[in-house]
Amino acid sequence: RKEVEQDPGPFNVPEGATVAFNCTYSNSASQSFFWYRQDCRKEPKLLMSVYSSGNEDGRFTAQLNRASQYISLLIRDSKLSDSATYLCVVIGPGGYQKVTFGTGTKLQVIP
Amino acid sequence: DAGVIQSPRHEVTEMGQEVTLRCKPISGHDYLFWYRQTMMRGLELLIYFNNNVPIDDSGMPEDRFSAKMPNASFSTLKIQPSEPRDSAVYFCASRPQAGGEQYFGPGTRLTVT
């Protein structure tokens, strides 16, 4: 089993739709979680951290489910500019000694 | 701040040649990471440094790859000899001591023919 797994997609959704991605991780002792966004032929950039209690940033909501070992990202009211690849990142165990990126989920928002 | 700087942005070389990729992290960041990204394998961590010291190089694919960080503002990733399967985008990222966010450079797109 891969340490961090994501559905590669692509997810093709119309503008205004709500879309959700999941990311599963194998090590229950993992400590920190993030979502990064990567545009085509660009570097990854931090989208948001994922907190145990869940957190929201505008149209984006991140959740952590430690019991089932997955994190999720919900995007409401999708915009064309949301089209990108979304990478989940799992840190630990062992503090920041282990950083594992998922292979990413590609989102295409269609007019 | 200029962000993480990488050079060259593009490199095309022939199999067997030596390739050197360069990275200047954000000033004040204590951690520096080298990644490789391909369509097949995604983003893979090759090696990371803390305060210029290599901490984990378990992701370095083989002895042809080496990385150095002679000072806090400069790191190199060297491939010698290069092979076509090394073709990928190589990213450098830095992170401050206390924070979790990594800041990525624009990457070096390497093509080995």
What does the model show?
The complex is a heterodimer of chains A (111) and B (113). Chain A has strands at residues 4-6, 11-14, 19-25, 32-38, 44-50, 55-57, 60-65, 70-75, 84-91, 99-101, 105-110. Chain A is an all-beta fold and 111 residues long. In chain A, strands 2, 4, 5, 9, 10 and 11 form a six-stranded mixed beta sheet that branches. Chain A starts with a strand and ends with a strand. Chain B is mainly beta. Chain B is built from no helices and eleven strands. In chain B, strands 2, 4, 5, 6, 9, 10 and 11 form a seven-stranded mixed beta sheet that branches. The model of chain B has no long low-confidence stretch (mean pLDDT 93). The A-B interface holds A 32, 34, 42-46, 49, 87, 91, 96-104 and B 31, 33, 35, 41-45, 48, 55-56, 91, 95, 100-102, 104-107.
State the gist of this model.
With 111 residues, chain A is mainly beta. Chain A is built from no helices and 11 strands. In chain B, 0% of the residues lie in helices and 55% in strands.
**Whole-number radius of gyration of chain A?**
13 Å
Helix content of chain A: under 10%
SSE pattern of chain B: EEEEEEEEEEE
Element order of chain A: H for helix, E for strand? EEEEEEEEEEE
What brief labels describe this structure?
A: mainly beta; six-stranded mixed beta sheet; 11 strands; 0% helix; 54% strand; B: 113 residues; mainly beta; seven-stranded mixed beta sheet; four-stranded antiparallel beta sheet
